[in-house]
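Archive transcription. Copying these from loose printouts into the bound notebook so they stop getting lost. Printout 1 of 2:
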Amino acid sequence: MYPVDLHMHTVASTHAYSTLHDYITMAKQKGITLFAITDHGPDMADAPHYWHFMNMHVWPRVVDGVGILRGIEANIKNTAGDIDCTGPMLDALDLIIAGFHEPVFPPRDAVAHTEAMIAAMAGGDVHIISHPGNPKFPVDIPAIAAAAAYYQVALELNNSSFSHSRKGSEPNCRAIAEAVRDAGGWLALGSDSHTAFTLGDFSECRRILDEVNFPEDRILNVSPRRLLDFLASRGMPCDPELNALFQ
């Protein structure tokens, strides 16, 4: 349905099962022309080391017409909005997703979660908040949608949240889509694939988008160009090879 997928994990996150090469192969089969590898930030117990992210420069930018973005799913660590992606890592990456994960930020209450999420957005380094509809981390949905629109941070609709992860997310995800729609913000779609077979699967996201009549012009995944322009507007200059591929 969309040619861009912005959230997936490789064997570098040891609870995932596919390689970069697997994702490239599947992208060619499914018509995905741009994807971002977003392995977990190093504060997670099974996450790759700092060097994994710093060494992403060895990846090709384009393989057989498929563009590859170097990303991370960082962890929001505290109510100050700190994330486990700082210093040189920020310069090594194209895309920074951040979200709550229980081993790093044990669930507290909606006030603390909302404060932490908004602080992470205000910090200026995060492009997308991952799975904000997780029922284990309730938030003030209108407040985070308004903050996301203000700071030009996309909120994610995470397809795996409807199938096997974060059970009970659907009502929150629908409310988030409605709130982002009304606030004039951005939505990002992520398969959150832990195996290449689900790359580009946004079937559950599509159902929510239709139910709330979400405008296509506020979805980052509609085209590679839209995503690259969004990142450029956030101070992430487009790589020349990607820019040439997706003129």
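Printout 2 of 2:
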Amino acid sequence: MIDFIKIDETSRKPKYKQIVDAIIYNISTGTLKVDDKIPSINSFSEDYYLSRDTVEKAYSVLKERKIISSIRGKGYYITRTKLISKINILFLVNKLSSYKMRIYNSFVDSIGGNSHVDLFIYHCDESLFLNLMDKSLGAYDYYVVMPHFKTDDLKHVSFTEKILQSISQIPKDKLIIMDNNNNKINKTSGSIEIYQDFENDIYEALEAGLTKIRKYKKIFLIYPNKTVYPYPRRILHGFRKFCVNYDMTFEIIDEVYDDIILKEGDLFVIIEESDLVSLIKQIRESSLELGQNIGVISYNETPLKELLGITVISTDFKKMGERAAQMILNKEKGRIKNPFNFIERKSL
């Protein structure tokens, strides 16, 4: 390998990263193939006059990305040759939901075949996110991050100081923040962003449906107060602001109870699908008629809601994924607010 892997002593790029890039490049050109043996850590460090720690770090990155593997007593081998030579992307998602997967699938479809995307779910957990970042830092060309985390008491936070510190280590032109809008992240990292503005989005979407909403006597927001994957409290702020500004009688409750009291003139804005299912079932069992004397607006669009005729307020998940891919391909920079829509159907 000494004939085709070169280490540039004058380069500002870390030497372990030069090793990683060189091996990936030689795989992409066919010089290295699956099952080819590569030198041991000690041999590599001796041949290139590098510290053992430098080579070990490079091999660790390559193993993490499943590019090489080690066999006890035999050495290191190439295990993957289907590598993309131009763009390698780490995609970090806070939860495995249908909405997040629509963003991810749209992103993968739009980025094209000349890329490799690794998807990791960190479940809104700070420790898991930091561990993933520590292992992957320097190993990818781009990092797409949806920053949503939970506190010990299951409240939503956009970031913690440790998260902010971790994200700030990514070069600003290699970082794409998606879904969440937070000024402290912006100022620290200077990241590319495609974001939702949760407070103003719900306000403006409800405002778009004001004519129909006014026919109802009281509007309820079903906001899960404590859940494994908490929702931004800015949704609450935007809802309250709308109701106060337009003199709407309102109430915020944390779930749809099994025996919830339903009255003519009620309008429910529902976030979680389990609450939506429970409410629709109870409405059907009552004497009330959906869209006539009781109304439902659901948060986040899905094909099933469209099929059932449920009015929704929702960001455009497909557009968010497409736009992120375009920004990478076109090497764009800046902050873009993702479209958020009011889609009226028969439930209102």
